[in-house]
Amino acid sequence: MDSLLPAIPAKRYFTIGEVGELCGVKPHVLRYWEQEFTQLRPVKRRGNRRYYQRHEVMMIRRIRGLLYDQGFTISGARNKLLELTQSERQLMRSGAFLDEMLEDNSADIEVSADLPQEEPTVNIETHQPTRSGLASDLMVHHELLQIRALLTV
Question: Which of 33, 83, 100, 144 has CA atoms 20 to 30 A from the CA of 18?
Answer without folding.
Answer: 83
